[in-house]
Design goal:
The protein is an alpha+beta fold. It folds into three domains: 1-32, no CATH class; 36-119, no CATH class; 130-248, Immunoglobulin-like (Sandwich), CATH 2.60.40. It is built from eight helices and 13 strands. The strands form three sheets. Strands 7, 8, 9, 11, 12 and 13 form a six-stranded antiparallel beta sheet that branches. It has a four-stranded antiparallel beta sheet with strand order 1-4-3-2, with no helix packed on it. A hairpin with a 2-residue loop joins strand 2 (12-14) and strand 3. Helix 2 packs across helix 4. It is flat and about 65 Å long.
């Protein structure tokens, strides 16, 4: 893989060299690979097919989780969240000890306590992680979905980015059946605090916990905005916003 240094940024294939753009910039690589029909049918590529099937399963499980929390996560994610979540789901898929290689799934692995621990604490925006933004301890009530903080002083307990005037807290609970692909989410009403507000208790709680049977994820969202004439504006294209999984059951 080579990086393009020319003023002209190329895309496409020229003379056996493929030019393309990635998150790492404009790159170039030699065109190659094995014919797709051979990979699909040649016994020599059995391991490749097994790896491909399991990778697809992990990627689908990650997409299912991202889609399920999209109402909360659309303003708090980084450019590599898809790859990071797929990597985690691959680790969870490897915990499936009920199926043979090529048929292992994240749905089976998710039943393990270790799998839930891998997802607990997952940050959808690696550039603004919960532990580096919120300093106050919080409690999660898995029966009601409530996330509570006994006392929070924005000036002391939150790392507030320059330009922010208010902080918006939301909580959510999503239930996902990774076997069927079904999901259900419940989101709390937003709590809006000025950055100079006095210390006070804080609680975000959805009206009800989802009734769908499945793995339940509890999430905390923190958005930073600048209020101008009673209109809220996001900061730096939402780069400072937080969305994290705070509990999994």
């Amino acid at each position: 893989m080579a990086q393009q240094k020319s003023i002209l940024k190329l895309k496409g294939t020229i003379g056996g060299i493929t030019f393309y753009k990635s998150q790492d910039g404009y790159l170039a690589r030699e065109k190659g690979g094995v014919d797709a029909s051979r990979i699909a049918n040649d016994p020599g590529f059995a391991r490749t097919r097994e790896n491909g099937a399991e990778f697809a399963n992990a990627a689908s499980a990650g997409k299912l989780l991202r889609d399920a929390v999209r109402v909360l996560g659309k303003d708090a994610s980084d450019g590599r969240v898809t790859a990071r979540l797929t990597q985690t789901m691959t680790q969870i898929k490897n915990m499936d000890d009920a199926n043979v290689r090529g048929e292992r799934s994240a749905a089976e692995g998710m039943a393990k306590a270790e799998a839930k621990l891998l997802l607990k604490g997952f940050n959808f925006n690696v550039n603004s992680v919960l532990g580096a933004v919120l300093y106050s301890p919080y409690q999660v009530n898995v029966a009601t979905g409530e996330i509570s903080i006994a006392s929070i002083n924005p000036q002391n307990d939150i790392s507030v980015p320059s330009g922010a005037t208010h902080i918006i807290f939301k909580g959510g609970c999503v239930s996902i059946d990774f076997s069927t692909g079904d999901s259900e989410i419940a989101v709390s009403e937003p709590i809006r605090l000025a950055i100079n507000a006095a210390a006070k208790p804080l609680s975000v709680k959805p009206a009800a916990v989802p009734v769908l049977a499945g793995i339940k994820f509890f999430l905390l969202s923190i958005d930073f905005v600048q209020s101008v004439n009673n209109v809220d504006y996001s900061l730096n294209n939402n780069a400072y916003n937080v969305l994290a999984i705070v509990e999994v059951v």
